[in-house]
Specification:
Shape: flat
Distance between the termini: 27 Å
Number of helices: 1
Mean pLDDT: 81
Structural class: mainly beta
Radius of gyration: 21 Å
Strand order of the largest sheet: 2-1-6-5
Strand content: 35-45%
């Protein structure tokens, strides 16, 4: 079914889906949540694996993912991550910051996430290059 059959929600509200194409072939392509909310500010993720279409409609045939942000936080949290493949990979770096203050009647939360990912060239892993020069349309 793929990502088109999963409803993505943020704190109980539906997140609009990405679409591909801008004509009669326009189709729903799922939801990209990587730039939606800083990861450090997500408190928990609730999932309904199947049978959610009765509650949410045909968009939720294969399930619902609901991301719940942190509602209260007091202090400062800084997180730095560095990822790189063991062989011929492009490094990925992420710096996250979460700051919050609590009072008797008010609270404030600030979250920030900066990501830097280098792009891989196709020639960095030549074993994954597939030549279609002699392809007959059938797999062996």
């Amino acid at each position: 079914m793929g990502t088109r059959a999963t409803m993505t929600m943020m704190d109980g509200h539906r997140v609009p889906a990405n679409v591909t194409g801008y004509s009669w072939w326009t189709r729903r392509a799922g939801t990209d949540v990587t730039n939606l909310y800083p990861g450090i500010a997500i408190g928990r993720v609730e999932t309904i694996l199947d049978g959610a279409s009765a509650l949410y409609g045909s968009e939720a045939v294969s399930g619902v993912v609901n991301m719940i942000p942190r509602k209260s936080f007091d202090g400062l949290e800084i997180n730095y991550e560095f990822q790189e493949a063991m062989e011929d990979g492009a490094p990925q770096k992420r710096l996250s910051l979460l700051a919050g203050a609590q009072g008797e009647r008010t609270s404030a939360i600030f979250a920030l996430e900066i990501r830097d990912g280098e792009r891989m060239r196709l020639t960095d892993r030549p074993e994954y290059i597939v030549s279609s020069a002699n392809w007959t349309g059938q797999y062996p």
